[in-house]
Amino acid sequence: MAHKVQIASAEDLGAVVRATRKWQKLRQDEVGGFSHTFIGELEGGKPTAQLGKVLEALRELGIKVQLELPPGMSPPSVVEQRSGR
Q1: Residue 78: Cβ within 10 Å count
Q2: Is the residue at 34 inside a domain?
Q3: Residue 5: exposure state from Cβ atoms within 10 A (0-12, 13-18, ≥19)
Q4: Which residues contact 11 (CB under 8 A, 6 or more apart)?
Q5: Who is most buried in 12, 21, 55, 69, counting CB within 10 A?
Q6: What's the domain count of the chain?
């Protein structure tokens, strides 16, 4: 069963990435096509990391990202179409 973790900062996200990578027994330079520098900055909570690269790294590690919308709000139709819902 997958665990859900609430992320409130770049540091929180970095801690999850680091723990997941270590759990998978991977070195920083073994995560996809990313440099150890990028993964190190991501794990260190660098707030200016490129969002696209961050999402790609999360996918590479098998981490799924979900957003909880404000109560009463429906997902934008473009997002609904992509997710198949």
Answers
A1: 8
A2: yes
A3: exposed
A4: 45
A5: 21
A6: 1
Tokens 């790294």, residue located: 57
- Phi, then psi, of 41 in degrees rounded to 5: -65, -40
Q: Is residue 1 part of a domain?
A: no
pLDDT band (50, 70, 90) for residue 1 = confident
pLDDT at position 59, please?
96
- Which CATH number fits the domain that encloses residue 16? 1.10.260.40
45: which residues sit within 8 A by CB, 6+ positions away?
A: 9, 10, 11, 12, 13, 14, 15
Domain of residue 64 covers 10-83
- Is residue 5 in some structural domain? no
Q: Which residue is associated with the tokens 């520098």?
A: 37
Q: Cβ neighbours of residue 3 under 8 Å, at least 6 residues apart?
A: none
Residue 52 in tokens: 């696209």
* pTM of the full structure: 0.83
